[in-house]
Design goal:
With 302 residues, the protein is α/β, with parallel strands linked by helices. The chain contains eight helices and eight strands; from the N terminus they run H-H-E-E-E-E-E-H-E-E-E-H-H-H-H-H. Strand 4 and strand 5 form a beta hairpin.
Length: 302
C-alpha cells in the first residue's frame, strides 16, 4: 500500500457539467450500487479503490471484474450474504465494498464473516491452499466506529510485539463519514474528494470546481436526479424509506433500553434507602413513578 494519491490515469471520456443540479444521496444502497457496480463504468470503482486503499506500484489496480453480490454458503442452513459490491482485480484479489448506513449489532463479526466467506469460497474441492487470494474489505460507515478522530483506518493481522505482517490475506479498511470534516477548499487527495462526494453530494447543486478527476465527475453525473427514470427514483425512495423505518425501530429499541436501565438504577438506589427526591434529581424519573416503584418494591419484598 502506498500514497493515497496513487490511482490510474483518468480515463479519457469528457464529462459535460451542468449547472443547478440536484444530486441524490450516494450512500443510499440503491444509488451506491449504481455508482460503483456498473461494468461499463468500472473506472469509477478502480479510482475509488486505488485512492482509498492507497494502492501504488505493483499493488495498483488496473482492472476489475465485477462479481455477483450474492454469496451462497456451502454449509447447509448458513446465511446467504448479499453485498453491495464485489470484484476481483487483475491478480485475482477480491474486494468487498459495503455501504453501512445504520450501526448494527455484531457489526465486527458480520465483517469477519463476509471476508472469511469470500476467502473459503475460493477453494474448490481438491484445490491447493496456494490458490487462495487476498480478500480486502472496505466499509463506508455513516456512524463512528472507533473512539478517535481519524476518518480512515486499515486493520490487518500483525504479530503483537514486532508488528510483523506475516498473515497477509486479510485486510479491513473503514471510512467513517461522520469524522470527515474537510471543506471543499481543504480537499487535497483523490481519497479526500471521493469521501467528500459520498458525504456531501446530496447537499450540492454543482460539481465542485476542485474536482477535476473524470471518475469522480462521472460519479456525480450518475447520481444527478435528472438522469433517473421514475421507476429508478421510486426504488431509490423505497430504499430510503426502508432505512428510515429501520432507524426508527433501532431508536425505539434504544429508548426502551435506556428506560429499562434508568428504572433498574432507581430500584437499586431505593433499595439502598436513598430519598425519593434525590433519586428523582439523579435519575430524572418522575416522583409519581418513583412512588409506584417503591410500592412495587415493598409488595415484592425485594
Amino acid at each position: 500500500m502506498g500514497s493515497l494519491d496513487a490511482y490510474p490515469k483518468p480515463y479519457s471520456r469528457v464529462i459535460e457539467v451542468e449547472s443547478d443540479m440536484h444530486f441524490l444521496d450516494p450512500t443510499n444502497d440503491y444509488a451506491f450500487r449504481r455508482v460503483f457496480s456498473d461494468e461499463k463504468k468500472k473506472e469509477i470503482l478502480i479510482s475509488f479503490l486505488n485512492s482509498i486503499l492507497g494502492c501504488a506500484g505493483d499493488e495498483l489496480i488496473i482492472d476489475v471484474k465485477l462479481l455477483d453480490p450474492r454469496r451462497t454458503p456451502r454449509i447447509l442452513g448458513a446465511k446467504e450474504t448479499i453485498l453491495d459490491v464485489r470484484c476481483h482485480d487483475q491478480r485475482g484479489h477480491e474486494y468487498i465494498v459495503e455501504m453501512q448506513v445504520l450501526k448494527q449489532e455484531y457489526f465486527d463479526k458480520r465483517v469477519l464473516y463476509y471476508a472469511s466467506q469470500a476467502y473459503t469460497g475460493q477453494l474448490s474441492e481438491g484445490a491447493s491452499y496456494g490458490t487462495l487470494k487476498p480478500v480486502i474489505f472496505l466499509g463506508i460507515l455513516s456512524f463512528p466506529y472507533r473512539a478517535n478522530a481519524h476518518w480512515l483506518s486499515t486493520h490487518q493481522i500483525v504479530e503483537v510485539e514486532t508488528k510483523e505482517h506475516k498473515l497477509k490475506d486479510f485486510s479491513f479498511t473503514f471510512i467513517e463519514l461522520p469524522k470527515f470534516s474537510k471543506t471543499e477548499q481543504q480537499l487535497t487527495s483523490v481519497a479526500d474528494k471521493w469521501v467528500y462526494f459520498l458525504k456531501h453530494a446530496r447537499d450540492l447543486e454543482a460539481i465542485p470546481e476542485i474536482i477535476y478527476e473524470e471518475a469522480i465527475k462521472e460519479a456525480f453525473q450518475i447520481v444527478n436526479e435528472s438522469g433517473w427514470s421514475k421507476e429508478e427514483l421510486r426504488l431509490y425512495e423505497r430504499r430510503k424509506m426502508d432505512l428510515m423505518d429501520q432507524a426508527a425501530i433501532a431508536e425505539a429499541g434504544l429508548r426502551e433500553a435506556i428506560e429499562k436501565t434508568r428504572t433498574e438504577m432507581a430500584i437499586n438506589l431505593l433499595l439502598e434507602g436513598y430519598d425519593l427526591d434525590l433519586v428523582h434529581r439523579v435519575i430524572k424519573i418522575s416522583l409519581s413513578d418513583l412512588h409506584k416503584l417503591r410500592s412495587e418494591i415493598v409488595n415484592k419484598n425485594y
